[in-house]
Write the structure tokens for this entry.
Amino acid sequence: MERTEIKKIVDEFLIDEFEIEQDVIADDAHLIDDLGLESLDFVDIVVIIEKEFGFKVQREEMKDIRVLADLYEYIEKNA
């Protein structure tokens, strides 16, 4: 799957599920500081990623994801 398609899917679920404004979504947006996500939100993100992209997310790998570009790259490598 290409990164542009991954970005579209991820950005859409961030906007729809977490009510994040589209203008703050950028590759360098920090998931906690810029997007306001909390620890429980990451559980929901994992479930959505597993459903949307069809692979099992490894919890220990998620701790290294800080900005949206990290999340896109993680999905691109594993999808």
Observations:
- The mean pLDDT is 95.
- The chain is about 60% helix and 0% strand.
- Helices lie at 3-18, 39-53, 59-62, 68-78.
- Residues 3-78 form a domain with the Non-ribosomal Peptide Synthetase Peptidyl Carrier Protein; Chain A fold (CATH 1.10.1200.10).
